[in-house]
Amino acid sequence: MPKIALITGATSGIGEACARLFASYQYNLVITGRRTDRLQRLASELVRENGVKVQILTMDVREKAEVQSQLNGLDEQWKAVDVLINNAGLSQGLDPIQDGNTDDWDTMIDTNIKGLLYVTRVVSNWMIARKDGHIVNLGSIAGKEVYQNGNVYCATKHAVDALNKAMRIDLLPHGIRVSAIHPGAVETEFSDVRFKGDTDRAKKVYEGYTPLTGQDIAETIWFMVSRPKHVNINDVLIMPVAQANSVYWNKEK
Predict the structure, then answer these.
(1) Which family does it belong to (predicted)?
(2) CA 75, CA 82: separation in Å to the nearest integer?
(3) I need a labelling partner for 172 at 20 to 30 A (CA). Which of 73, 99, 148, 233 fits?
C-alpha cells in the first residue's frame, strides 16, 4: 500500500516542494491550502508526473470548524496518514511591539499556533489508532532566538518549538515520531506575505547571498521521515551558509 502524506500550506514554497518530493517517492497526498486553483494545478501535475493519488482540501487552518469538517470528511482510506507536515504558517509586518498591528498579531497566532493545533488534534488521533505515524512541524530560527521587530512572529515560532517537544512526550506511548525543522532564510513567498505584497522590499531580504530554497527544506524533511522506524530526529536547525543566526550575516556588498 502506498503511504500517505498530509501537507498543510501546499500552495507554494516549502509545502509545494514537499508535495512534489513526496510524490516522487510515490506517496499519495492530501494537500491543503486556501487557494483552490493552485491546489488543483499542483494535484494535476503530481498525478500526471508521478502516477500518485492526490486529495485536495481547500481550507484555512485558522478556522477550527472548517479544519474539523474537511479532515473528518475524508474517506477512511485517506485517514491512514503516515506523515503530517504542519507547514502552514506566515509572518505579518515587521514593527516594534508598541507599533504592532493587532490584526497582524491575531493572524500569526491563529495560523502558526492554533492552526497547527487544530490539524494535529485530528490527525494525531488517526495515527494513535494505527500506532504509527510521523509529525513534522515547521518552525524557524525565530523559534530559537528573538530579533528586532520580530516580537509576535518569534513568539509564535517559540510556541511551535515548545509544542514540538510536548507532542514528542505526549505521543511517545503510541509509537508516533515527532520532529521539527527550523529554517533560517528561505526564498519563498514568506517575505512577500510579511510585507503585504511589497515585492521590492521582499526581494531585498535575499540580496547579497544565496538563501535556502523550498527544495532544500523538503529534502531535509524527507531525510528525517525516511529514517528507520527506530530513529527519530527531534530537531533540525538549517541555515544558508551566509547566515549564522538571525543577526549575523555574510552578505556581498
Answers:
(1) Belongs to the short-chain dehydrogenases/reductases (SDR) family.
(2) 15
(3) 73
Nearest to 5 by CA among 26, 27, 24, 25: 27
Question: Is residue 245 included in any domain, yes or no?
Answer: no
Strand, helix or coil for residue 179:
strand
Q: Are 32 and 54 in contact (CB under 8 A)?
A: no
Among the residues of 62-210, which ranges form H helices? 64-72, 102-108, 116-130, 151-170, 190-194, 199-204
Q: How would you classify the pairing of strands 134-138 and 177-183? A: parallel
Domain that holds residue 133: 4-238
CB 239 within 8 A of CB 141: yes
Please give the tally of structural domains in the chain: 1
CA within 13 Å, CB half, 134? 22
- Residue by residue, what is the 3-state secondary structure of 205-225? CCCCCCCECHHHHHHHHHHHH
The residue written with cell numbers 497582524 in the block is 104
Q: Cell numbers at residue 253, please?
A: 556588498
- Which residues are designated catalytic? 153
User: Can you say how many angstroms the Cα of residue 48 is from the centroid of all Cα atoms in its chain?
Assistant: 25
Per-residue pLDDT of 108-166, as tens digits, reads 999 999 999 999 999 999 999 999 999 999 999 999 999 999 999 999 999 999 999 99
Question: Are the CB atoms for 68 and 44 separated by under 8 Å?
Answer: no
Question: For residue 193, how many C-alpha atoms fall within 13 Å in the half-sphere facing its CB?
Answer: 15
In a domain, 55, yes or no: yes
Examine residue 250 and state whether it is found in any structural domain, yes or no. Answer: no
